[in-house]
Amino acid sequence: MPRVVVDVMLKPEILDPQGQAVANALPRLGVSDVASVRIGRRIEIEFTGEPDLDRAREIADKLLANPVIEDFTVRLVEADETAGARS
Amino acid sequence: MTARVGVVTFPGSLDDGDAARAVRIAGAEPVRLWHGDPKLHGVDAVVLPGGFSYGDYLRCGAIARFAPVMETIVDAARGGLPVLGICNGFQILCEAHLLPGALTRNQHLHFRNRDQVLRVESAGTAWTNAFQAGQEILIPVKNGEGCYVADTATLDQLEAEGRVVARYVGGNPNGSQRDIAAITNTAGNVVGIMPHPEHAVEALTGPSLDGLGFFTSVLKHLVGAPA
């Protein structure tokens, strides 16, 4: 069954201290060509019936993301591309 | 008649006991409210306490906002019920859109726990009328996600309308924009504050008695408010 993947990211103008901390750690790995890192959240939703992108958008807008500080995108993926299928 | 002030307990609330104690020391009757019960049991005001409601899963306050008791509180707050959100309670009020903006990870990523000087900027709210504008108070701050953010237009509007209720003085513990520690809604009945007034109501356990003013304020407000 296809799943809906919701990607939630902090808006570009919101400071991401976690991303900065990761970026600051990269030189210790010998990585010097990364300009910035931003951290978000990926949520996979499986519907009981057919996947419903509009419904997923509503869920994302009301609960999964806080539109004051975050943007989100919604897309369909085949089951074998999702984390649940790999585990 | 003694005012009845509700204190909500969510799964993961930590400071509901201290909030109820502060209400009692201020001279009101604390009424414990349960997140799963939509009834407010006739309370005259509500405190949303600090802690980690629903484990702070997803975002702080995001799931608590949909608790049965919150749906009733949101409606009642729009009708003028005084509501004070402390720390996690402030986060819940922002998630519920009763207050603008959001609280994000402390900029330095450390949990900050210390006694903090605040300047009360607005003594015109239901929860701060016992203070003088400009008064400095000392109460504990303890948060990991207390960095207040909002867009510039919202921040300017808060300042212009006198809705910044308190600011951090002598060092900003979390990176909050414009040193904001507490804000209110347009009507002044809903206040969100990141530091913890309920921990500063007794000499034995707090750094001062300055926190008590928030709880005596609401009693003063209720006496003056039309029934």
TrEMBL record, chain A:
GO molecular function: ATP binding; phosphoribosylformylglycinamidine synthase activity
Alphabetized UniProt keyword annotations: ATP-binding, Cytoplasm, Ligase, Nucleotide-binding, Purine biosynthesis
InterPro entries the record matches: PurS, PurS-like_sf
Top-rank EC class of the record's enzyme: ligase
Transferase recorded as keyword: no
Principal subcellular localization: cytoplasm
Any Gene Ontology biological process: 'de novo' IMP biosynthetic process
Keyword set includes DNA damage: no
Similarity comment text for this entry: Belongs to the PurS family.
Protein name: Phosphoribosylformylglycinamidine synthase subunit PurS
Organism expressing this protein natively: Micromonospora costi
